[in-house]
Amino acid sequence: MLTRLSRFGPAFPRLLRQTQARCVSQSKPSGAGSAAVTDLHAPSAASAHGEVSPYVKNPDYHGFSDDPAVDEWNMRIGFFFGISVALVIGGTFIHYLPDNGMRKWARREAELVIQQRERDGLPLIGENYYDPSKIILPSKGQE
CB neighbours of 15 closer than 8 A, spacing ≥ 6? Predict the structure, then answer.
């Protein structure tokens, strides 16, 4: 399967290994045979500085910072502004958008015309909606 997926580029096997390394249960060991997170995430041999994965230092790593306190604070701030404020301000903005297609204006205008015609004693819609003198009908020969 790895040879089939390697057509996506030379970096795919490396990405696959990184993804497999991150898919680790964060639950506490329940007994014999359970491995701790630190056992599964040993320092990388290729690194000259002995760097440890952020998941080892902070099992609740959110990807904002290496420091666990700053990481959690940045995650909370990011989600607050990204979700709460966006929903509230976005919903308010959408609610107060101008009348789409002027539908409300058209209804108010129609109600005013109806009230005016009722006040004048005229029918709401005349028998001849269009002025008959302005309608040009084809002659018998053009039909």
Answer: none
How would you class 37 by CB atoms within 10 Å of its CB: exposed for 0-12, middle for 13-18, buried for 19 or more? middle
Averaged pLDDT, groups of 10, the chain, 143 residues long? 52 54 54 54 56 74 84 90 89 90 93 96 89 88 71
Provide the terminal-to-terminal Cα distance of the chain, rounded to the nearest Å: 74
CA angle 44, 71, 62 (to 5 degrees): 65
Number of neighbours of residue 67 by Cβ within 10 angstroms:
13
How far is residue 138 from each of residues 40, 65, 129, measured CA to CA in Å? 90, 80, 19
Q: What integer pLDDT is reported at residue 68 of this predicted model? A: 84
CB-CB contact of 57 with 70 (8 Å): no
